[in-house]
Every structure is written in C-alpha cells, then in structure tokens.
Amino acid sequence: MPDESAHPQRKIIHIDMDAFFASVEQRDDPSLRGRPVAVGGGHRGVVAAASYEARKFGVRSAMPSVTARRRCPDLVFVKPRFEVYRAVSQQIRAIFAHHTDLIEPLSLDEAYLDVSEDRHGLGSARAIAEDIRARIRAETGLTASAGVSYCKFIAKLASDQNKPDGTCVIPPSKGPAFVAALPVSRFHGVGPKTAQKMERLGIHTGADLAAWPLAELEARFGSSGRWYHRIARGIDDRPVRASRQRKSVSTEDTFGEDLIAHERLAEELQRIGERSWERIEKADFRGRTVTLKVKFADFTIITRSRSMAGAVGKKADFLRIGQDLLAQLMPLPKPVRLLGFGLHSPVVEEEDGPLQLGLEI
C-alpha cells in the first residue's frame, strides 16, 4: 500500500497536452485538420511530434523522417515554430498559476501541479483538473489530458490512460492495483533497454515487479532497484518542485554494429543531434556546453565538451560543434558502439533577449 503517512493530503495533477506541436499547427492552418501531420522532418531529420491521424500509421516522435514517410505516404511535414509553442505554453502555465504556485514544468507541453490547497473551493482535485482542461480549450483551442493522483509517478501514468482529451483519477486506495496491471515498459524511469532486461527476467507488469524482493532488485539493477521496488507498490514521495531546473538535455544511441569510419559516425551523430535538438527545444532548455559521449566496443567511455560564453541558440551551431568534437578524435583507436550528444550548463536567458552563440571559453 502507498506510504500516506508523510503526505496524507497531497493531491497531484499531471497535465499533458495532446499532440501539442502538431495540434498547434492544425489549429493555425485549417487545411491540416484531419490530416496526418508531422512536425519536423526534412533531409535526414526526425519527427518532433505527430498528429493523432499520423500515429494511426505508426508515426511517432524521434522517428527518422524517411521511415515516417514510408509508413504514411500522405504524411504532411511542417517546419517547427518553437516561438509559437513557447507562447502557447506560457498561456497554459498562466492557467496553472490560477490554481497553484506549485508548478513543475517538464517541457513545453507537460507539467506537474500540486493542488493540495483548493485555492478556489472547487471541491476536489478532479474538479480542478477539469477546470484547467476546460480553460485550456477555451483560451488556446487545444486539448489536454490529465492524470490525478496522490503521487507524481501515478499521476503521470494516469494522464496517458484516457488520451486524448481525457481525465483519469487514481485515489490512494486504487494506486497499487493500477500500477500492478500496467506493463513495466510504461513506467517513467524504465527505459526501453531496462524494460527488455526486466522482461528477460520474467518481469512484464507492475505485479511481476512487486513480487521481487528489494535485495534482488538492487542486485540486478543497482541503485535503481529501490526506486523500482517502491513504484511497484505505488509509492512515490517526491514533491512537486516549483524551482526545478533541468541541468542537461541529451540523446544517445547504441548501434547495431560497431562503427569506426569517420563518415559513418558523422552521419549517426547528425541523426542523434537532430533528435537531441528537438528535445532541447521541447524542454525549452538553454545551455552553453556541448558534450559528445563516445562508448567504445570494449565499453570504455570518453567525453569531449566545448563551452561557450553564452547559450548555444541555433541548431546549426550545436550540430557543427558536435561534428568538430568528433573530428578531433579521429582517427579513433577502436570501434564505437554508442554515441551520446547533448547540451549542458544551463543558462538563464532574459525572456525577450535574443539567443546568440557565445564566444568560446
């Protein structure tokens, strides 16, 4: 059962906008409504977001545009307009602030809210979530889904339960049973590779995970074992942190075969960099240090970084610096099994100030 003693009255909402980038594009261009739309793409690009019409064909975010086009020949690619998405995100956050000051944004299109204090006397966290969703629709023309529960972990799972344009409420009495019935691949904090490892161990659902003793989970998964042990029982005491600041955004990929040729690695880095920049934009993150991670075939790891005086504000600059860092490693002493590429060292920008590439430090 959940540990309710520490925070017996905590009420948390996770709001997740429905196909946010694609929905904004369909809202602003009526000719796109009802059609399969992908935001992003381009030459060797990736999909940043897909409309629900596109998702029916298996198109999803982070998918190479070539694959997306193959799955859905009628797919319409739209260039991202992150300045518009940020403006809409600010509208939505103002709606959140009407109900609570405890807002923890995860990206432009999702956030946790602690509504334990019923500021306007609506009577329940469900009523607050419904009011937020109604105001988002009225003020932005977009839809959002909400998960309502006693902890962040379950609220986030619940927001995905009745998508799109739905609300799911999981009270403390139903938390463990809700988690038990779900596949572990849906759990926040369980990535694809960990999910595969769990499935090889016979752990397919939350109930399977809950059956494992803490000591065995720690032996198999290290320090993460305690987290898995707790969430399998619907326990998550993390508070909503209004001052939470992301420290980095990055993407990494393990190759199907080890690579050593500069040309092949440069192509892979371009692809990984495109995905990473989409995540950077979605998270509304500004950083000044570009970092390249290289894991060799023997599992040894090296990193190379370049720091600027100000934020790296353009994708072209981000990708160029990454390629420069890779070129400086050539020729490589041994084949590579993984590349990681991201942005670190957060920079607080003035809201209306231009983002420019700073001087190197």
Folded structure, characterized:
This protein is of the alpha+beta class and 361 residues long. 37% of the residues lie in helices and 21% in strands. The protein is built from 13 helices and 12 strands. The strands form 3 sheets. It has a 5-stranded mixed β-sheet. Strands 9-12-10-11 form a 4-stranded antiparallel β-sheet. 37% of the residues are buried. Residues 1-7 and 350-361 have low confidence and may be disordered. It catalyses: DNA(n) + a 2'-deoxyribonucleoside 5'-triphosphate = DNA(n+1) + diphosphate. The active site is at residue 110. This is DNA polymerase IV.
SSE series: EHEEHHEHEEHEHEHHHHHEHEEHE
Helix-strand category: alpha+beta
User: Overall 3D geometry?
Assistant: globular
Helix content: 25-40%
Active site: 110
Binding site for Mg(2+): 16, 109
Site (Substrate discrimination): 21
Domain UmuC: 12-191
